[in-house]
Write a structure and sequence with these properties.
Low-confidence stretches: none
Radius of gyration: 21 Å
Distance between the termini: 34 Å
CATH class of the largest domain: Alpha Beta
CATH architecture of the largest domain: 3-Layer(aba) Sandwich
Strand order of the largest sheet: 3-2-1-4-5
Shape: globular
Mean pLDDT: 94
CATH superfamily of the largest domain: HUPs
Number of helices: 19
Number of strands: 5
Length: 397
């Protein structure tokens, strides 16, 4: 895995530079083909880095536009915006993440008989078994394989969608609460009501170059029905767009591991860095050995680059307050806190910090600020805005 996904920003930038010339026709024509582990692929393999913002969405598109027009690289650019769309959509509906956790806990308390065979790749379904084992062993699956896997899980094996989302979240290097949860809901017909994704043997055979042609797949995909009603979107919280003047402490989280690119950071770096140990829920959700180690190594790479004194503290309501007490800087700068496993305990900590007279300075990327408001419905509403959003970001060929 260290060779497949080195955990440094420099390695991420090098991968981006190597991929960018191929982000046009080669990507568009080959991105749906799962060639199997260890073989050259048309996809970028950048998502674990984008997920943690070891490289940013803007950097990825900017590098690609050095080699292609926006029209030629349209498919890749859309995939970058998909990830932002998922985040914005969930951020405006945090109750969907809470509902997923409720579904997950209920299903884990009494898992179906076939659940263990599914996650161990012992179902007898060609392809599905290979993908289950590949995921656990590598922390990675081709995006098309993820869709096939989720469809077979839900419609052929009749397993709870939340258990499948949990399996992916535990092991995928690039899993985040938004893209993982909402992608599973999309396959199940819960994200876009009534619209499902059906895995077909001929499609799998075609896009695996004949490696797999599973038999006895579900002939149709009846949308799942749930009592939960998707809430109306709420506007995302307002936040600052640059680091403050004067001394501050930085709270570093894996949602944004390139704070050096925040406006104002270069001229006013933090006095100190604080890193929270994973909460029990966070550790439970991201328990795959490869995925959790990647997160730790990526975080360490950011700490090394920032080169400031670092303190690790417990993610409890009092842990962060105690760590900040006695510091000369009474401001804590944090990246925008997205809906996810660490949000509840961190929010309790932030309330306690403010009660103790410590100012919390939350930073939101301008990229998110511009794109998220368009994630109110399906992706295709946002898709129409991509040229305008790129121009707004100053991204031109």
């Amino acid at each position: 895995m260290a060779e497949l996904f080195p955990t440094s920003r420099q390695a991420a930038l090098e991968r981006l530079r190597c991929f960018a010339p191929k982000a046009g026709r080669a990507y568009a024509s080959g991105r749906n083909t799962d060639v199997g582990p260890g073989n050259p692929t048309a996809v970028s393999m950048l998502s674990p880095y984008l997920r943690r913002r070891m490289i940013t969405e803007r950097e990825a598109i900017e590098e690609v536009l050095k080699h292609h027009s926006p029209e030629a690289a349209e498919k890749f650019i859309q995939e970058v915006f998909w990830r932002t769309y998922w985040k914005g959509w969930l951020e405006m509906r945090p109750a969907v993440w809470d509902h997923y956790l409720t579904e997950r806990e209920a299903a884990l308390a009494d898992p179906p008989a076939d659940y263990q065979a599914a996650i161990e790749g012992r179902t007898g379904i060609e392809g599905f078994n290979d993908w289950a084992q590949e995921l656990v062993q590598s922390g990675w699956l081709h995006n098309h394989a993820r869709m096939w896997f989720a469809s077979i899980w839900i419609f052929t094996l009749k397993l709870p969608w939340a258990l499948g989302a949990d399996f992916f979240y535990r092991h995928l290097l690039d899993a985040d609460p938004a893209s993982n949860t909402l992608s599973w809901r999309w396959v199940a017909g819960l994200h876009t009501k009534g619209k499902t994704y059906l895995a077909r043997a001929d499609n799998i055979e075609k896009y695996t170059n004949g490696r797999f042609r599973p038999r006895d797949l579900a002939p149709f995909a009846e949308p799942l029905i749930e009592a939960f009603e998707t809430p109306a979107p709420l506007p995302p919280r307002d936040a600052q767009t640059r680091v403050p003047d004067g001394p501050y402490v930085l709270l570093l989280t894996e949602d944004d591991l390139h704070p050096e690119s925040w406006p104002g950071f270069e001229t006013n770096p933090p006095q100190e860095v604080i890193v929270l140990n994973p909460s029990p829920q966070e550790a439970s959700l991201n328990s795959g050995t490869i995925a959790s180690q990647f997160s730790k190594d990526a975080l360490q790479n950011a700490i090394t680059r920032i080169d400031r004194p670092v303190t690790f503290c417990e993610q409890t309501a009092s842990g962060l307050t105690q760590t900040m007490s006695g510091r000369t800087a009474d401001r804590l700068v944090i990246p925008y806190q997205l809906s996810g496993p660490s949000a509840p305990s961190l929010n309790r900590s932030l309330v306690k910090l403010e009660a103790a007279g410590i100012t919390v300075h939350e930073l939101k990327r301008s990229w998110d600020d511009h794109v998220w408001p368009h994630a109110t419905a399906g992706f295709f509403k946002l898709k129409k805005k991509i040229p305008k959003l790129m121009a707004q970001a100053g991204l031109t060929h």
